[in-house]
Amino acid sequence: MKATPLIGLEVHVELETKSKMFCGCPADHFGKEPNTQTCPVCLGLPGALPVPNEKAIESCMKIGLALNCHINTLSKFDRKQYFYPDLAKGYQISQYDEPFCSDGFVLLDSGKRIGIERVHMEEDTGKLQHVVLEGKKVSLVDYNRSGVPLVEIVSRPDLSSSTEAKEYLKKVHEIIRAIDVSSADMEKGQMRLEPTVNVCLENESGIHYTPLAEIKNINSFNFASQAIDFEVKRQTEEFENTGVEKSATNKTTRGYDSIKKTTFLQRTKEEAKDYRYFPEPDIPPFIIENELIEKLKGGLPQLPDQVIASLTDLGIDPKYAKIIYGSDEALVIINKYKNDKEIDIGKLASLLANKKIDVSSNIKEEYQKATQKGNTNLNELRDVVEKIVADNPNIVAEYKKGKTNVAGFFVGQAMKETKGQADPQTLNQIISDLLNQQ
Amino acid sequence: MKQLHELTIKEVLDGYQNKDFTCVDLVKHFLARIEKYNSKLNIYIALNEKVLEEAAAIDKEIIEKGITRPLQGIPFAIKDNFLTKGIVTTASSNILKDYQPQYESTVIEKIKAAGAIILGKTNMDSFAHGSSTETSDFGATLNPWNIDKLPGGSSGGSAAAIAAQLATVALGSETAGSIRQPAAWCGVTGLKPTYGRASRYGIVAMGSSLDSPGPIGRSVEDCAIVTEIISGKDSKDATTSPSLVEKYTENLYAPDLRGVRIGIVKEYLLAEMREDVKNLILDAANKLRLLGATVEEVSMMDPRFAIGVYTVIQRSEVSSNLARYDGIRFGHDRDTFCDETKRRIMLGTYTLSAGYYDAFYKKAQAVRTKIVNEFDEIFKTYDAVIGAVSPGPALSVGASKNQPMFGEMEDVLVEPSSIAGLTSVGLPCGFVDNLPIGLQVTSNQLKEGTAIKIADCFQRHTEFQLFPDLEKTV
Amino acid sequence: MHTITVTPDEVKKIGKLANLKLQSDEVTLFAEQFTKTIEVVNHLNEIDTEKVDVTYQVNGLSNVTRADEIDMGRVLPQETALREAKKTHNGFFVVERLIDSDAEELI
Asked: Residue C49 pLDDT > 80, yes or no?
């Protein structure tokens, strides 16, 4: 039986704006005292109204542009309705059928295109903590995070392996950081991942699809990869046992146990969620002009893949190019010397990548030191060495007794004599030949 | 000589200026009347405990600087869906029965900045769900003209406060009829501004795409003064209009209506409407003609279609707006909703649910476009359209019970204009069965000035703006 | 134009979606009342709206946003934010945990 995993990824990115999505509360909520950064709007008090954050919307569109999306001319916010204590208004303001961005892609290194369905804007919920208080099971709610801007990036199920998924996530992560809309710090929950997995199985009876499983609560790329692997295996086995295929109503939600490295069913009853989406009446719709799109496009910095491509274009080995891209310092150095005729940029890149250069001193000197062959004139060098050997019979005697490391003394002296110009390799050879002849 | 409770805004300000009385005098006068009549009429459900303090502060200000603000020391009755800091805000629902707002509505901030004083919060249909004030969790308000009758709703308390002369002016809100209809049933004047003219920030939300806060008062003039002050773009409400607020008071005192074109909507003269009510409307049309206006019959979509549109849109928005009342951050839990509210939440949830959204909500919003377009066409030719506010006079207490669509049916004549976000003045135009009948003067969006000019001119040349003698009726 | 009858089962489902607890007599009553209401609403289908756009915003506004600035004037002090709640603990709002609720999420 041939099994092809079909993996889609939903990534939520917390934007680093100053204020929240629909109100002026500070958006930076990490580590703050509970419920100290709320207002009538994000606390869902009676009569409060949302007003959207201009910068957040622009950041969402920048992400869309960086992911090669089309920016829609018409878009709007919609209410997504469900009840949960961390959702103050009883609905989340999100985007349903007219998101800001749609139809983009990410290119993997292999050249494979991973489709991006949409990139849209929504608001975060508050935070729940499950504790026992006075013997009762309760949840503690903090709304500091309620209303913080979130961008949701939804891929098409074009990923076929956990490796591809990991690569996709890394690229998206780099892009987000490159365009400076969020630090996307996974530990702070600024980038959250939700893979949706099913498997396409081909056997004698034809092609079958296993039911979809959405996996929540994954906070690292490695966990995502492990969860996907486990899930693919589990679904394949389950199909072999039950033959149950994907339907409109059997999508499940699963959690991931990072210790056992397994996924587990999270909801006991699975009914298709009815979010009763309808257009947000408190926020007028958006008509996006080309001018704005061009301005945002123009303001985008070079994206990671573009930078790496420009490095390889210079003749730098791709594996070094990636490492150079990861260091601001190294990038600056490469850019400075890329047109310098005395420097082989490929070699410089390899030296930088392998940390063979002291970046705090003069780069050109360091480069030359590392690449020069030095004086290899055998006759000159032999004369120098012979003199030193003749002048130091006791050290020669030590060498003959077996202390071969004293050869270093002769190297040091010879280097002193030649003012550092001698080629170390040639010198070593001459010294050991001569000493062995004694 | 007029008694203190009979004074208009201008007359109060003049009185302060001439030192005929102080703000404390006026407030004490109203408090005494409230003490006497409120328990019977159930108009106010909460009084401002600091009102005398605030009145004294106003008096001090007036002594030191004279009259410097347009609503200085004017006592207001506020519908209880406006969040007021320091005064409980309940929306006449048990779910909020002890809610002390942590912030204040923009409109309240504006009238306070203009010097207004709040006497108290008035009764309303619970969460504004109704056209009778009977769905209130705190008992119905009674009509000051006849205590066997309802005052209308949902701003019934505010309209009754003016009819009973328990405040100089009042604030209400209209989703579809909630200012104009109680004003009509109580025989007072109400102004529904254009949707988005005044901020909804800090008003318990009902129908987000429809709610319009506005004044109810003794005259078109008082309503115009207040409308000027409460209007304007609010950075905290994305649906407010950026249009400059005109000086509506400049449209008052027009000597005649020459050059004004008015349409009288044929379809608003419903087949089942009483002849005497119809005649009052036709008389009003004639009066407007005598004042120089051209009044012609116009034909519009049967207003009954608006019932479907309004029911679906309003209940859908209500079901969503009331989701935040979960008892976690404020208020009591959802079991505390009254029946009418539960019913509306349920129907709204139904019309938005998967499988029905296209058939109901989307369809309603499409018919809405047709209604909007139709008004646009009419207003190319006419400055205003007129008709009755309500199919008949105030109904009896108990009329709304067990009527699942009471409100929407009663408001049939005002729903089209509300759905289109238009502005409209409702004012008295006569009596049947000793009960007042209201006329609506409806103009296009942002044309408050036009509606005010027509209504004010009509009011100055007629004598329908009367007030009941509470000694006789209560 | 087809007639829609709202059944008590549907009413129960709606009650759950709306997070309202309904008594059985309420369920039956609502089913009747909704059916009547839907009849009235169904008249909308008499109007042809094929070539008509849906109205989302009746006063024609679009592109309304605010600058990304912190508005400390509106931020509530912790005690004010918590003041109207029935139950709080150490700065948090407290909610009973419903173990067998559909919405239960494990953290």
From this structure: yes
Residue C46 burial (C-beta neighbours within 10 Å; 0-12, 13-18, 19+): exposed
Percent of chain A topping pLDDT 90: 59
Flag whether residue C78 sits within 8 Å of chain A, measured between CB atoms.
yes
Does one domain contain both A237 and A320?
no
Residue that is last in its domain, among A346, A371, A396: A371
Q: Residue B464 maps to which CATH number?
A: 3.90.1300.10
The reply to whether A87 and A133 lie within a common domain is yes
Residues 262 through 281 of chain A touching chain C, CB cutoff 8 Å: 266-269, 271, 274, 276, 279, 281
pLDDT in tens, C71-100: 999 999 999 999 999 999 999 999 998 654
The answer to whether residue C64 neighbours chain A at the CB level (below 8 Å) is: yes
Measured CA to CA, the distance from residue A169 to residue A62 in angstroms comes to 18
Give me chain A's average pLDDT, please: 91
* B34-44: pLDDT as tens digits: 999 999 999 99
Q: Do C95 and A141 touch (CB under 8 A)?
A: yes
Q: Give contacts of A89 with chain B, Cβ < 8 Å.
A: 323-324
The total number of structural domains in chain A stands at 3
Q: Is B10 one of the annotated active-site residues of the chain?
A: no
Strands B117-122 and B169-174 come out as: unpaired
Do the Cβ atoms of B198 and B107 come closer than 8 Å?
yes
B149 catalytic per annotation: no
pTM for the model stands at 0.89
Q: Which domain holds residue A307?
A: 302-371
Within 8 A of A82 by CB-CB distance, chain C residues are 103
- The single-letter DSSP state of residue A159 is B
C-beta of residue B234 within 8 angstroms of C-beta of residue B240? yes
The CATH code of the domain that includes A386 is 1.10.10.410
- Looking at the partner chain, which of C52, C56, C81 has a beta carbon nearest the beta carbon of B370? C52
Report pLDDT digits (tens) over B241-274.
999 999 999 999 999 999 999 999 999 998 889 9
Catalytic: which of B79, B121, B149, B287?
B79
From chain A, pick out residues whose CB is under 8 angstroms from the CB of C76: 38-40, 43
Q: What is the ipTM of this complex?
A: 0.96
Task: Centre a 10 Å sphere on the Cβ of residue A105 and count the other Cβ atoms it contains.
Answer: 15
Q: Does domain C1-48 have CATH number 1.10.150?
A: no
Known catalytic residue: B136?
no
Number of domains comprising chain B: 1
Bridge partner residues of A153 (DSSP): A11, A119
